[in-house]
Amino acid sequence: MATINKKLFSHLNVEDDDPIWEKFARVEFSKKNLFPDNKAYLVEDGLVRKYYLHTPSDIDTEICAEFYFPGDIFIVDHNDSEGIYESINQGLAWEISLDEVKEMFVINPGCRFVQNYYLSSKLNAAMKREMLLLKNTPQDMYEYLLKHKPHYIQNIPLKYLASYIGITPISLSRIRKRIT
Questions:
Q1: What are φ and ψ of residue 173, in 5° steps?
Q2: SS3 content of the chain, % helix, strand, coil (to 5)
Q3: Pairing between strand 91-97 and 25-29?
Q4: Beta partners for 74?
Q5: Whole-number CA gyration radius for the chain
Q6: Among 97-106, 128-137, 142-151, which range has the highest average pLDDT?
C-alpha cells in the first residue's frame, strides 16, 4: 500500500504518526482530469489549475486563477466557488472528504493549525495577486513571475500562464520576445 510523502507536506506540522494520514485516499490522475466536489486534496505529483468560465458572448473563455504544485493543498467546494479544478498533466494526489475534515477538527482541535495555515496562505496569496494585477502591466507581471516564481514559467503551459496574467497568448508571446 502506497503512503503519502509526509516530508513534502511537513509545512503542515502534522505528526508522522497522526491518524489523519490514514484517512487520505490515493488518487492518480491523468491530464485534463476534473476533481470532484466536497473534497480536500494534497498534491504529491503533477500540476493542477483552478479556472473560471467567462461567457462574454457565445464563446466560453477560461480565466486561470490559481495553480497547485507538489506540496500544495486545494479544496473543491462548489458551495463557495464556481471554480473548476483540472489537472494540467498526470500526477498523484491524496483526497479526503470535507465531512471527514470537519470531523477531524472536532476530534483533534490541534488540526486547526492546518486549517489556519491553509486559510492564511490562501488569503495572503490572493491579496498579493490582486495588488500585482492592479499595480502592474502584464509585462511587469511576467517579469515578477520570472524572478519570484520561475517554476510557473517552467511548468505552466503558455496559454494558461497568459490567462493567469490576464492577456492573450499572442500578447504573452510578444512580451517574451521583448524580454529576450
A1: -60, -40
A2: 45, 25, 30
A3: antiparallel
A4: 41
A5: 18
A6: 142-151
Percent of the chain residues past pLDDT 70, beyond the cut: 92
Q: Interior CA angle at 110 toward 104 and 112, to 5°?
A: 70
Q: Please give the backbone phi and psi of residue 150, each rounded to the nearest 5 degrees, phi first.
A: -60, -25
User: Model confidence at 76, in pLDDT bands (50, 70, 90)?
Assistant: very high
Output the CA–CA distances (angstroms, integers) from residue 98 to 20, 40, 66, 104, in the order listed.
13, 6, 20, 10
Nearest Cα to Cα of residue 164 among 30, 68, 78, 93:
68
Structure-derived torsion over alpha carbons of residues 113, 114, 120, 124, reported in degrees to the nearest 10: 140
**Ordered DSSP codes for 26-46:** EEEE-TTPBPPSSEEEEEEES
Which residues are CB-contacts of 103 (< 8 A; sequence separation ≥ 6)? none
Rounded distance between C-alpha atoms, residue 107 and residue 127, angstroms: 32
Using DSSP's 3-state secondary structure scheme, residue 87 falls into: strand
